[in-house]
Structures are given as structure tokens and as C-alpha cells.
Amino acid sequence: MSTAQSLDHPVPGALRLPRPAKVLLVSPHPDDIAWSLGGTVARVAAAGAAMSALTVFGRTSYAPGSAAHGTSAAIAVRAREDVMWATATGVRLHRGDLPDASLRGYDDDTEMGAQPEPAIVSEVADRLTPVLRAARPDLLLVPLAVRGHVDHLAARSAAEYVAAAEAPDCALLYYEDLPYAAGVDHSHTEHPVLVDVAGYHAQREAGVLCYPSQEPHLILPIIAAHTSVTGGERLWGATASAAQRLAELLAAAPQSDQQPDQRPAERGSGHRPRRAPVVVHASAPADQTADSPLRRMESQPW
Ligand SMILES: [Zn+2]
Question: How far apart are CA 280 and CA 202, in angstroms?
């Protein structure tokens, strides 16, 4: 495996990011970003970037830490948790309405490693396309789908397609999705980015605790162990320039979670992370044209 990009000494002559940079996070389920990228999100926020997230599969009955587990009431429980997390992190949240794997007939065994249905990949692309057009991100962070959860694969496939069609200049990076990536030595590209989150553990834990229905006391040790093994939160750039762009963004962030008013770079900058909850319900565009991503995707061999 090649050496991870240095976050604090970007390569001279790298692409310059606009300020504030815009980052879009693709989260298959509520909680995936908090689980996998909690420290990175806190550090990106500290760098003054504007963050948006799309939670793709908003319909679910899975909530083992809640009395709503196994019922349709789980949808509202998990939506509230997602909003709580977005409020805490300052991320503008878009909520997709697609049914997760458990509602599409998969179980704990069959959801791992199955190829996603072409129709659901197209549906994900339909939700992501308007979000991407609105957010116009400089960086797009998508699940790597380590060990192949079918919903994560669907999100990744759709994001790759939409990014290529709609935002070819956007830096595409893949994040190691937890808990699936725990204990897996998974190399993806030659462009790993290891994010030092040592100063952001408290913020990451607070984000994970926004999801009590997902039994965070079980997931926190897994996250900590993975960070210990990898040395941080690891992403993989689709290209060297994509990895460099993330490195450049993070170089603007302090390595510890100082209070905002202790950060000279932010004082008076107007780039502080947003704290008010902003939730947008992501739905497919009303008028699908013959040339829409959905139409063009129907012939793709997913
Ligand atoms: Zn997930």
C-alpha cells in the first residue's frame, strides 16, 4: 500500500480549493457518516467547509435499541436521530425516502455481498442528482462498501455514476464504512488519505450517541479499535488530485477540537459551521426526461 497523503504538508502546486469549500457526504443509512467519518466531519467543519449530506435509505424498520424496532415507527425514530446529528455537526441534511435492504427482502446474511438491484441503483441516482446539483460540492465522499452491504454498494455505484455525469471536476473519495471495515485490510486505490482525528474523539463520540436506536455502546469500541489500527479515519481518493484536495482542506483545520472562538483563522471569517438544523427531503425530479441519469442508467450492468 502506498503512503497516505500528508494532511499537513500538501504537495506544492496542488489544486486550490475555493473558500469555503463545499463537501457532500453520501450516507446509505442514518448513522453511516457518524460511524465512519465522525472525526473527519468535525475536522472539516473546523476548517470552515460547508457540508451537506444525503441519507439515501430513509425507510427502515431496523432500530434494535428502540421499542420501534421491527415496525414502521422506526422510520420516524431514525429520522429524529439523523436530524439531531445534523444539528450537532452543522451539516445540511437531505433525507432520501428509499426502503433499506431489510424492507426489500434481504436479511443479515443476504444483504452482505449481494449485487444491488439495477432499479434501486437508479432510484438512488435520482435522489442524489438534485442534491448534487444544488450542493455543487468540491468534494464528494461516498461509502467504499467494504464487505459489500447491498445498500452501500447501491449508494456507491449511483454516486460514481452521478458524479461522472454531473460533476466531473468534483473530487471523489471513498470512506471505509464501519462497522464493516473493522478488521478488514482493504486497499482500494493508490491514493489513501489518513485523517488524524486524535483531537476530535469527543465530537465523534457525541455524534455516534445521537443514534441510540442503533446501540452506540456496541459500535463505539469498534470505531475506536479501527482508528487505533489504521491510525485515523481512512479514505481513498479516486485520483491523486482528489486525495490532495482533501488533504488541502484538512490542512486548514486545527488538529484538536478547540472551541471556535479559540481559532484565530475563523474569527470574523464568516465561515463557521452552521448549527441550525436544515433538513431537505430528497425526492426524484418531477419530470424525467429521456436523457436523465435514470434513463441512461437503465442499461448499465450493475
Ligand atoms: Zn449503513
Answer: 27
